[in-house]
UniProtKB/TrEMBL annotation:
Family: Belongs to the binding-protein-dependent transport system permease family. MalFG subfamily.
Sections of the chain in a coiled coil: none
A UniProt-annotated Pfam family: BPD_transp_1
GO cellular component: maltose transport complex
Name of the gene: malF
Protein name: Maltose/maltodextrin transport system permease protein
Job description of the protein: Part of the ABC transporter complex MalEFGK involved in maltose/maltodextrin import. Probably responsible for the translocation of the substrate across the membrane.
GO biological process: maltodextrin transmembrane transport
Native organism: Deinococcus gobiensis (strain DSM 21396 / JCM 16679 / CGMCC 1.7299 / I-0)
Amino acid sequence: MLAVLVLALLLGGAALIGWGLSLLVAQAVPTAPPYLILVFIVVALLLLMPVVGRLVPWIANWYYLFPAIVFLAAFTILPIVLTVNYAFTNYNAVNSGNPDSAARTAATLSADRRVVTLQETPEAASVREYLRCRAESCAGDTIVLFDEEASVPVRARIASVNGDAVTLAAPLPGTLEVANATRLNRISRVGLANFQEIFGKASRALWPVFIWTVVFAFATVVLNAVAGLILGILLYNKRLKGRNVYRTLLFLPWAIPAVISVQMWVALFNQQFGIVNKTLGLLGITAIPWLGDPLWAKVSILLVNLWLGFPYMMTATISALATINDDLYEAASIDGASRWQQVQAITLPLLRASFTPILLSGFAFNFNNFGIIYLLTKGGPAQEGREATAQSTDILLSWGYNTAFSSGGGQNYALASAIALIIFFLTLAISLVNFRAAGVFEEARK
């Protein structure tokens, strides 16, 4: 733990140095590429590692942990920190921290290159309102300036505002010929506003989506487990002729990539041209709106997920049955027990220990099973009284995805981050219940 702490401090120090150098370079050369921060961090690491090695000689034996810490920080810790941070901001497609190209206005620069005069302030009565300044004098805020080609925006710090004239904190470089100016769409703190919005509209999004997520995960696990258990027990019978052929055929749905399988099912479930409804029509049954009705869409998801998931449960059953001693069945047969009685008294009780962690992990997986929802229904069909991002078959994860990345959600990354935090705490609570049910805490105490 001490070695991990030292390596983490080393990485943090290099990151701070790289960040500081990148800020200095950005001020001196506004056109510098952003990836320079990574170059600075790597160089700082190469310089700091020998220094730390001399101060703490034994740390050299632990440098092999450094790649793992870097990947952990980059792909786990940093996303978590950013998600938590964005959940309390107004970060979205508009408030993205980038210049507002829609509010660009013509501007001129004074001879001393310190005063920018705006010709007009679109959709605003004053320069302060136009720039959305945080202070009355606009001191410390930012204005974005462009040349005639508007190729590279230059951000300048404001010292004060007087009428239409904006005085900058420092003169602009002589190479910039100012032609246009605009404001910066800042990312600002909003406190608990995102969570208040989520719970304020809970009846239209949170609760229906959460209930369906739990039902979907639980029903999937039950259906897949029952189907896999029955098929596994049947195919484990050594007297069954051609059982290896049956195993191979039933294993194919698991071997085929889900992306291909789900797209195939989308075609099969087509209400007008799908083979499922064509077959039902031959039997005199009216065409079923498999993917066009909220209830039937949910049934379709469970059926397709059954098709994708039962081979895993079947394989797990066959593997678990191989660990049961055949002498138990022989003794039960001698005592006159029927095949069904043997399954009840021997097979199912002995499979319980093996299946409990499988079922719990299956529930956790399907609780966040975004793929089947997105590929089969994309969360639809639409349902009256629900949010555009939380339709009839959306689960919590797809709701967050729609909020962050679809046009219907306004690309509201802050609200999606708040949803992600709610999902985290719900998943954590469910995992604790699962661990308790599986006896994990009792095993840890032993």
